[in-house]
Each structure stands twice: as structure tokens, then as C-alpha cells.
Design brief:
By secondary structure, the chain is α+β, with helices and mostly antiparallel strands. The protein contains seven helices and four strands; from the N terminus they run E-H-H-E-H-H-E-H-H-E-H. The longest helix is centred in the last third of the chain and has 12 residues. Bound molecules: inosine-5'-diphosphate and magnesium ion. The site of inosine-5'-diphosphate has 9 residues, from loops.
Length: 138
């Protein structure tokens, strides 16, 4: 069953820094996503820690949060049929080295930490992450 979903996408600091914002947005549009909302912001490390709380026990947690808060990012709400999975597929594997040909991380990712984009991993987390950036704070 396919259904219209929304998912949260982030263009991470490494990609914003390389001026890839418009190119990446174009890829989403070409792949049938509508960009319903977007904002370019820089977040505090404490906010990144909240966003990535699910990873708090991982050895890379502190570096990850420092990185996400190191420069401007673009947070977007993307919509299309089965948007969560479609965006995960379009992004490619977490490590750009393993990412599929044609995926955003394969094309633009520098390393496992500087992998250019974030995408929600479930419909439930998409709701939480969309609220995080577009509800009351930030
Ligand atoms: P995802 O972004 O593909 O969903 P997650 O496992 O949720 O991957 O990890 C969140 C982010 O943490 C990744 O996008 C990546 O930037 C970073 N990360 C994941 N695993 C590692 C690692 O082993 N070393 C360093 N950074 C990592
Ligand atoms: Mg994840």
C-alpha cells in the first residue's frame, strides 16, 4: 500500500558549505518530492544533542552533535508517496563509500560523518523530527 507521507530532510553543514543546497533540492523535486517547508538555520550543540538523542550511547555522539551544530543547515519537510522510504533510498547508505550509484550520499558525501544529508528513518520519527524543527522552537 502506498500513501502520501511527510519526512524530515536536513542538508548538513558539509553540503551547505559547498553551496550544494539548490542542487540537492533540485534532486528532491526531480524525484517527485514536494518541499512543503524549509528553513536555513544554525543550531546549538545542545539542540543537536536533543535531535540525535537516540544515538547518545554511541561513541560518535559528541562529534556528531558538534558537527551538526558547526554551521548552517537546511531543514525541510518533504512530501510524496512513501516519502520516508523513498527519501532513505534517494539518500543512500550512511557511509558514502557504501552508497548506491545515483544516491545523494554517493554523489556528495565526503565521509561517514560528513554525509551531506539526514532523513527520518520511520513515519513515527518523521513526525517527531518535523515537530522539532517546525513546531515551537528553533
Ligand atoms: P543515518 O543518517 O543514515 O540514519 P544513523 O545511524 O542514524 O545514520 O547515524 C546518524 C548519523 O551519525 C549519520 O548520518 C552519520 O553522520 C553519523 N554516524 C553514524 N555512524 C557513524 C560512525 O560509525 N562514525 C561516525 N559517524 C557516524
Ligand atoms: Mg538515522
Amino acid at each position: 500500500m502506498s500513501k502520501i507521507e511527510q519526512t524530515l530532510s536536513i542538508i548538513k553543514p558539509d553540503a551547505v558549505e559547498r553551496n550544494l543546497e539548490n542542487e540537492i533540492k533540485e534532486i528532491f523535486k526531480q524525484n517527485g518530492f514536494s518541499i512543503l517547508k524549509e528553513k536555513k538555520i544554525q543550531i546549538e550543540k545542545s539542540e543537536a544533542e536533543k535531535f540525535y538523542k537516540v544515538h547518545e550511547t554511541k561513541p560518535f555522539y559528541s562529534d556528531l552533535c558538534a558537527y551538526l551544530s558547526s554551521g548552517p543547515i537546511v531543514a525541510m519537510v518533504l512530501e510524496k508517496e512513501n516519502a520516508v522510504l523513498a527519501n532513505r533510498n534517494l539518500m543512500g547508505s550512511t557511509n558514502p563509500k557504501d552508497a548506491e550509484d545515483g544516491s545523494i550520499r554517493k554523489k556528495y558525501g565526503i565521509s561517514i560523518d560528513k554525509n551531506s544529508v539526514h532523513g527520518s528513518d520511520s513515519v513515527e520519527n518523521a513526525k517527531i523530527e518535523i515537530d522539532f524543527f517546525f513546531k515551537d522552537h528553533l
